[in-house]
Structures are given as C-alpha cells and as structure tokens.
Write a structure and sequence with these properties.
alpha+beta, Immunoglobulin-like, five-stranded antiparallel sheet, 1 helix, globular, NEAT_dom, NEAT_dom_sf, signal, Iron Transport-associated domain-containing protein
C-alpha cells in the first residue's frame, strides 16, 4: 500500500498544483457589470447615460468598480457619495475617455454621485446622478 501511495504522490501533487493555479487565477479575474446613469430622483436615464462606456468592470474583490465616460474634454470629475461621505475622483484620460475607479459596497442599491462638467466659456456645473447597477 505504501508503494502505491508513493507512486500516486506526484500525480496528486500535480492535481493540487493545477487546482491552486486555477483558483488563484480566477481570484484576480474582473467581471463585467452593466449600469445606467439616472437622474437624481432615480427614475429615468440622464444625458450622461449616453456618454457612459458600458459595461463597467468589477475587480475580484467584488467592490472596486472601473467605468468610463466618453468625451474627456467636458467631464472633469466624479464624486461618489456614500455612508462615509463624498469621495472625488478625477480619473485617468485614456484616448477620448475618462476612466474612474471607485468602490461600491452594495450593488443592490443605486450609487449616488455627482458629475462635474465644464464646457469652456459656456458651461460649468455639477450634476447629481445615480448609477443603477443591472
């Protein structure tokens, strides 16, 4: 019996190593999450919904979201409002999009946010919005 165990040991170690690699690899995989950008009352999509790049990406921690908006010349910042206060993100410009990364604790409720838009010489305002996670 000990001889057969010794013969099987390399195979068992190989199977365990492959299982570990698969498990670790899946832990780092991001998932997609679709969303809509709604008006402050949460009833209908806002103009910002047409600028949103979808779907968003959710990191393996299940809370870190990365999403983007087209037309980086107008959208300046995104402020997420949650139970711990407000957190403003200026994002990273990638081509013609501005990419934001932030955390979401609960995807079952809308995320309250503010989007700062500037059209030079014409328009400078902060819009209250909500992200509805689908």
């Amino acid at each position: 019996m000990m001889k057969s165990f010794k013969k099987m040991m390399p195979l068992m170690l190989l199977v365990m190593a492959v299982a570990l690699i698969v498990q670790v690899g899946s832990a780092f995989a991001a998932t997609s999450k679709n969303y809509n950008v709604l008006k402050p009352d949460g009833t209908i999509s806002t103009w910002a919904n047409s600028y949103a790049v979808k779907p968003a990406s959710v990191a393996s921690d299940g809370e870190t979201v990365t999403l983007a908006f087209n037309d980086t010349t107008y959208i300046q910042s995104l402020t997420i409002v949650d139970g711990s206060g407000s957190h403003t993100y200026y994002g990273t410009i990638v081509g013609s999009t501005r990419v934001f990364t932030f955390t979401v604790d609960d995807f079952s409720v809308n995320t309250q946010a503010k989007l700062h838009v500037i059209v030079p010489g014409i328009y400078d305002t902060v819009h209250d919005i909500q992200f509805k996670w689908l």
